[in-house]
């Protein structure tokens, strides 16, 4: 009995600590610096619209290495993080503070997450080879529904009517797209390949929706304060291990031997092949840092919404630059995606106003209490 009571007490203590940490996040959200951090990370996510677009350009003009394209999404851009980290470490050394923010336990958990993110990148890269970028982006927006579902069970995510409405609208957009699947099949892609791409995109969305709240849970269990160096270190560990998985796949698939030949035969030219690869890797890395920032500074649901926001941007890039068709159902799916995102933003605006009003009432009550005494 005493053992059971101790386990229950430990569980209650852990739950209390987690709730306290989330309340601290809510208090921080009123800080202008915290708002600017969220705005910066959201901007980084928006820049990530170029990632799926360049990935589709790679496949359209003769690229076919799926493990290479997976590596570009998570593992190839990690050197971008070294400059800000080196500046941060230099400042820490000057102030005689601890060099690393990340703990061994958190680093171990992030390494496992990195391997799973690497698998998710492979699923998305495989689907990108067979689907138009506008189609795959809308399908991948279903990750918000998966994120909401898993966040409810894993991190006890609270929902408002507006966030629920947002999830429903974004999911309906993907369903509308599925009603006409196959009619926008690219030339040279068979019906079976198109179907595989369709299924692989949904699988990637489901796995991504699971990994986002898992990452939030891992951070909450670490009980560390969010800092810029910690965000960079988490991003670096995840990128390193996800990239490691993709590199193993590239070695097994003999991608390194095939890359020079693929570059020579690339439709846009050999030099542009390497430029495209480098730019795509950097854009994906910038986007990933923004997503981790939204996740750690706010919540898994906001990170999922940030990913869903990319849908209309990728749609426009695909239609304008790749001349992909924008039929009625795809236009409906795009409209539902924009409506869903607007619903979420409005709900967050209402929630912030409500929190400010409650804080004002508490402050007023606190001022009136001494006068009554």
Write structural notes for this entry:
By secondary structure, the protein is an all-alpha fold. Helices cover 81% and strands 0% of the residues. It is built from 15 helices and no strands. The longest helix has 45 residues, at 328-372. The N and C termini lie far apart (47 Å). The model is unreliable at 1-20 and 26-30 (pLDDT under 50).
Could you provide a short overview of the structure?
Residues 1-27 are annotated as: Disordered. The protein is mainly alpha-helical.
N-to-C span: 47 Å
What is the number of domains?
A: 1
The biggest beta sheet is recorded as: none
Radius of gyration: 22 Å
The average pLDDT is 78
Coarse structural class: mainly alpha
Element pattern in H and E? HHHHHHHHHHHHHHH
Number of discrete helical segments: 15
Give helix % range: over 70%
Per DSSP E runs of 2 or more residues, the count of β-strands stands at 0
What fraction of the residues are assigned to beta strands by DSSP? under 5%
Shape: globular
Q: Please mark out the parts with pLDDT under 50 across 5 or more consecutive residues, or reply none.
A: 1-20, 26-30
What keyword list fits this structure?
15 helices; mainly alpha; transport; 373 residues; purine nucleobase transmembrane transporter activity; globular; 0% strand; membrane
């Amino acid at each position: 009995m005493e053992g059971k009571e101790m386990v229950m007490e430990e569980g209650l203590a852990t739950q209390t600590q987690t709730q306290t940490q989330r309340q601290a996040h809510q208090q921080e959200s009123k800080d202008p610096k915290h708002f600017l951090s969220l705005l910066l990370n959201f901007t980084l996510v928006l820049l990530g619209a170029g990632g799926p677009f360049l990935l589709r350009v790679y496949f359209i003009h003769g690229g076919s290495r799926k493990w290479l394209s997976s590596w570009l999404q998570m593992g190839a851009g990690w050197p971008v993080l070294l400059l800000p980290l080196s500046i941060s470490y230099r400042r820490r050394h000057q102030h005689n503070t601890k060099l690393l923010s990340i703990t061994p336990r958190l680093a171990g958990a992030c390494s496992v997450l990195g391997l799973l993110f690497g698998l998710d990148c492979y699923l998305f890269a495989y689907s990108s080879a067979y689907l138009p970028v506008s189609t795959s982006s809308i399908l991948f927006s279903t990750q918000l529904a998966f994120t909401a579902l898993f966040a409810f069970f894993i991190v006890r995510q609270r929902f408002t009517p507006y966030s629920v409405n947002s999830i429903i609208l974004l999911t309906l957009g993907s369903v509308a797209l599925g009603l006409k699947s196959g009619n926008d099949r690219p030339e040279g892609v068979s019906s079976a390949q198109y179907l595989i791409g369709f299924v692989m995109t949904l699988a990637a969305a489901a796995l991504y929706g699971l990994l986002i709240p898992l990452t939030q849970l891992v951070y909450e269990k670490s009980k560390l304060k969010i800092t810029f160096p910690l965000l960079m270190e988490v991003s670096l560990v995840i990128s390193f291990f996800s990239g490691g998985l993709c590199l193993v796949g590239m070695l097994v698939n003999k991608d390194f031997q095939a890359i020079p030949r693929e570059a020579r035969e690339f439709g846009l030219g050999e030099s542009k092949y390497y430029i495209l690869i480098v730019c795509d890797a950097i854009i994906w890395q910038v986007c990933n840092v923004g997503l981790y920032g939204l996740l750690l500074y706010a919540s898994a649901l906001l990170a999922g919404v940030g990913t869903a926001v990319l849908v209309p941007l990728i749609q426009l890039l695909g239609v304008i630059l790749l001349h992909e068709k924008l039929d009625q159902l795809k236009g409906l799916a795009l409209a539902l995606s924009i409506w869903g995102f607007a619903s979420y933003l409005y709900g967050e605006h209402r929630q912030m106003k409500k929190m400010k009003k409650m804080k004002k009432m508490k402050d007023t009550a606190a001022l009136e209490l001494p006068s009554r005494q």
